[in-house]
Amino acid sequence: MGLPRFGRPKGFEGDSSPNLYVANCGPAVGLSYDSIASVFSAFGELKGVFAADDSGARVIVSYRDESSATAALEAFDGHPCPDLGGRSLHIRYSVIQPTSQVNDSVPVSLMASELNIPGLYLLQDFVSIKEEEELLAAVDARPWKSLSKRRVQHYGYEFCYETRNVNTRRKLGELPSFVSLILERISSFPNLDDSANIVLDQLTVNEYPTGVGLSPHVDTHSAFEGFIFSLSLAGPCIMEFRQYAECAWLPNHTSSPSMKMQSPEDDKSFLRRAIYLPPRSMLLLSGEARYAWHHYIPHHKIDLVKDSVIRRGSRRVSFTFRKVRTGPCQCEFPQYCDSQR
Question: Which residue range or ranges hold the RRM domain (predicted)?
Answer without folding.
Answer: 18-96
